[in-house]
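Protein in question kept in full:
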Amino acid sequence: MLKRNPGTVRNQMQALKALGLVDGVPGPKGGYSPTARAYKELNLADLEHQSEVPIFRDGEKVKGVRVSEIGFTTLCHPDLCHAMVKIIGSVKLFKVGEMLSIGPTPVNKLLIRGEVFGMDENQQALMISISEMISLPKQAIKHYMSTPLLTLPLSATLRDAVHLFNTHHIHGAPVMEDGNLAGIVTLSDIARALDQGQTLDAPVSGVMTTDVIEAPSSIRLYELVGRFKEREIGRLIVVEGGKPVGIVTQTDIIRVFPSL
């Protein structure tokens, strides 16, 4: 609530309208709405060129809203972690008690998860009780990949693959032919082949996956999370100059940010 006399507020709004900062909204539920010039004065103009900080509910992005500011209101409290999340859009799209995921933010890749415990319609802000806060790594995957890359030749058998996996405590390896990536074979592939009646002397070329997911070593780790989920894979090959140089697995990702 504004602690101002109604007449004072009307005079102030008229002054803002004269400055081109607000427009009048007619009707019984009318009032004033900010203009593009007002957003410019508040450094909120040109939103289409700003990075979007989204809000997710039940894994789905909430359309029509974006985060403009996050303020931690209980920073020094020993037991509580609350935040005021100002949005561009309407807080009426949300309900108290809903669990939301906010972010990641564009620079530090901050991701916040928490429950809505209040809303401020005047400031268009959500009050969030934070249950989890993560800063996703910004480094390239070359800093997290396993190297040197353990490989199998195209002529290898399932027995050779089992020996490699057992010796190095791994669950999959790329298959190479003349220095080029021909496929990838995993423990699951071998188990499936044995269940179908094949022997350990069968060639890996008959059970390997040829549609191998690759990623350049310069890509950032947080960008890979979506690929793992979309393609339902457990590992991908890291390449430099078109040549395999390492491997990144789900275990590597979980080790960096286990809550994902």
